[in-house]
């Protein structure tokens, strides 16, 4: 059953149909929340909040974009609000499948390699987390959610050129942060590579 058909039914009073949409998108929304919170419990709570917001605002969905894009927009905005309210969380971005900087573990990792890989991920997480919100959001959506610039444009409600510019500038800022000398004169970039 198509999302639009389910939405029409829910708006006509068949509210149980919303459970189908929740089942369809709950994992995607949870994954998005986890990229912002890096905390399982917080991500669960945030996911529920997003899905509840979407339910309450369902009548505002106009079919001008896909339901998933509309839901993502609510999700991203809610996650950004959460980050602003919870400054105590640092290094809140998970490194799972990064298209920008590859952190590939060894084929047969020894305990030292596992620790080094973990430290590299933490350095990268902290660097991404310290970026201004507009760059961090684009990097998360592009690198971790594998969304196109057009999809990100639809979610954020900005021009594709703006997304491309933010992605370029965000990567440059990230690269600059990782090229700063750290312990013993070694560059963070080298520690991450």
UniProtKB/TrEMBL annotation:
Signal peptide limits: none
Alphabetical UniProt keywords: Sigma factor, Transcription, Transcription regulation
GO process terms (BP): DNA-templated transcription initiation
Any one Pfam family match given in the protein's UniProt record, by short name: Sigma70_r4_2
Residue ranges annotated for the RNA polymerase sigma-70 region domain, each copy included: 21-88
Residue span, RNA polymerase sigma factor 70 region 4 type domain: 122-174
Single annotated GO MF: sigma factor activity
Chloroplast keyword on record: no
InterPro entries assigned: RNA_pol_sigma-70-like, RNA_pol_sigma-70_dom, RNA_pol_sigma70_r2, RNA_pol_sigma70_r4_t2, RNA_pol_sigma_r2, RNA_pol_sigma_r3/r4-like, WH-like_DNA-bd_sf
CDD domains with a match to the protein in the record: Sigma70_r4
NCBIfam families assigned: sigma70-ECF
Membership in a protein family: Belongs to the sigma-70 factor family. ECF subfamily.
Protein name: ECF RNA polymerase sigma factor SigW
Organism (species): Oxobacter pfennigii
